[in-house]
Structures are given as C-alpha cells and as structure tokens.
Specification:
The structure holds 2 protein chains of 2 kinds. Chain A folds into 2 domains: about 5-45; about 55-145, no CATH class. Chain A has helices spanning about 5-10, 10-50, 50-65, 75-90, 95-105, 110-120, 135-145, and strands at about 125, 135. Chain A is built from 7 helices and 2 strands; from the N terminus they run ααααααββα. Chain A is rod-shaped, with a radius of gyration of 36 Å. Chain A is mainly α. The termini of chain A are far apart. Chain B has a 4-stranded antiparallel beta sheet with strand order 1-8-3-6. In chain B, strands 2-7-4-5 form a 4-stranded antiparallel beta sheet, with no helix packed on it. The radius of gyration of chain B is 14 Å and the shape is globular. Classes of the chains: A mainly alpha, B alpha+beta. Chains A and B meet through helix 5 and helix 6 of A and strand 5 and strand 7 of B.
Chain lengths: ~150, ~140
C-alpha cells in the first residue's frame, strides 16, 4: 500500500491535523505571552522597586557628575583672555560682540567664536543689558589670570 | 534626522504641550548639526525656518551690532518665521559646535492656522520671548 491510501490507513490525515493544531496553539500561546510581557515587567517593576533604584542611581550619578560651573577653566583661557582684553582695549567699552569677532579675525586669531564663548562662559565677558558687552575685571582678578603687571 | 517625541517634550518651549500636540509637531522637526562660526540665519533674509537650540552656544546680532548670546537648550532662534513680514531681524551664528532642531516656517504656520488651540499655545510662547528680545532689536533697552 502506497501514497494517499497508506496515509489514510495509518491515520496520517488526523496526525497531520493534530500536528498543525499543536503548532498553531503553540504560536497563539507564545504571541499572547509576548503581548502580556509588559504587564509582568510592570508588576516586577512595582513590587521590587526596580524603577526607584534606577531613578536613585540616576540621581546619584547626576550628583557625582561635576557641574559645568564647577568644572576647570577652558583650555587656553589665559591666552584668550590676554589677547581679547587687548583687542577690547583697542575698540573700547562697551563693545559689540560681532565687532570683536570681526576684529579678532582681522588680527589673525583662530577660533574666535569658540574663544569668545569661553570668555562668556567664564564671565570674563558680560552683557551690559543693552546689546553690548563689557570686560569683567572682577572675574579677571578672581581667576588670577594675569600677574601684577596685567600680563 | 527626525527627532524623538520625548526629546521634544524635554525642551522648555514644549513643556506645556500635550502628547497629541507634540505628535502633530514632531514630524516637522529635523535635527541639524552646526559648526563653529556657521551662520544659521541672516538679518533681512526671508524667515523660512524656525530653530530650537538642542546643544551648543549661539549669538544673534542686530542693527548697530547689538547682540545677545544663547547658551541654553530650548532657546529659540528665528522668531520672525511666525511674525510679519517674515524676515529675520537678526543674524544667528554658532559660537561652538552644536545642534539645532529646525521646523519649516510654512508648515508651522499651517499648524497654527488649522489647530487654534495648539496655535494659541505656540503664539503665547512666541510672544513671551518676543517681549524679552524686542529691546535688542529696536535698541530701546
């Protein structure tokens, strides 16, 4: 006996149907389990306080990270301060920031924007509130950038 | 590069916006990297793009070389995109490397006109910023 007769005689059709049913049932169970994973995770999350621990760890990390204000002075700030103070003396105070940038470029200074930003961040250059800027001699003294002769 | 909605929500400008509002705005936003000295807007040019600072430091200069600097995430550049006559009043330049979120002005205006509630929220924020910055533009500080 061969072919379809043999399949029928040995319950082949029923076995095939059973196999397909088992596979599909398995897939249904699997997809349902996956769809409910978020609930299981939420339950564990709440019960174990995992999220609180993560948040706490994040806070601790934030605390341990140095604040920008506490960070050391930008590299080359002394040189930038010296050069830009000379330029500002030349153009006079209060001065215009775009004018200072243009003037520094004409004088051949590299990375004028970046260096002026460093001076702004360290408060060596401060706004006068009217759209112009001033050199901050107080901060210059505090940071002790120059020696007694102002160099 | 499209921007995640959670990033948009973290910006001060959008903090009062609902999730539905942000879902409407998010597809308009792209992230653009900026380099030191790069010009973002030019004074007098047609204001076609609205920018929100994502990182970096910027300077905006006006008539008579008046200027102010922006250093905070969420600060706005290109308010003129939403204000007649739709011409930038200042030139924005990147002082350092950074990134800005850009929104096409026409699309933003379309949202403001089609969704009155959202439009009102956006214009309220814009007016608050304009009020603070106007003295620098007019010179009446």
């Amino acid at each position: 006996m061969y072919g379809l007769d043999a399949i029928s005689a040995n319950n082949g059709w029923q076995l095939a149907a059973l196999g397909i049913s088992i596979v599909f049932a398995g897939l249904i169970v699997l997809s349902f389990s996956i769809s409910q994973i978020h609930r299981v995770l939420e339950f564990f999350d709440k019960s174990s306080g995992f999220s609180q621990r993560i948040k706490k760890a994040g806070r601790e990390k934030n605390i341990s990270e140095p604040d920008v204000a506490d960070s050391p002075l930008p590299a080359g700030i002394k040189e930038s301060a010296f050069q830009f103070k000379l330029l500002i003396k030349h153009i006079g105070e209060p001065f215009s920031l775009p004018e200072l940038i243009d003037f520094s470029k004409k004088c051949g200074l590299l990375h004028s924007h970046l260096r002026i930003n460093d001076l702004l961040q360290t408060n060596l250059i401060i706004p006068d509130g009217k759209g112009y800027f001033l050199w901050n001699y107080e901060v210059e003294k505090t940071l002790r950038l120059f020696d007694e002769r102002g160099e | 590069m499209p921007v995640d909605i959670n990033i948009i929500k973290s910006l001060n400008f959008f903090k009062d916006f609902s999730h539905a509002d942000l879902e409407e705005i998010a597809p308009l936003i792209d992230q653009i990297r900026t380099t030191e000295g790069e010009r973002i807007t030019c004074r007098g040019c047609h204001a076609d793009t609205f920018f929100i600072i994502f990182s970096g430091n910027f300077m905006i200069s006006f008539k008579h070389d008046r200027s102010y600097t922006l250093h905070d995430r969420g600060d706005i550049i290109g308010l003129s995109t939403l204000i007649m006559p739709f011409a930038y009043t200042g030139t924005a330049v990147a002082l350092t490397e950074g990134a800005v979120l850009s929104m096409p002005g026409e699309e933003l205006l379309r949202i403001i006109q089609s969704n009155s509630e959202l439009g009102e929220k956006i214009m309220k924020k814009i007016n608050e910023i304009v009020e603070k910055r106007m003295p620098f533009v007019t010179g009446r500080c």
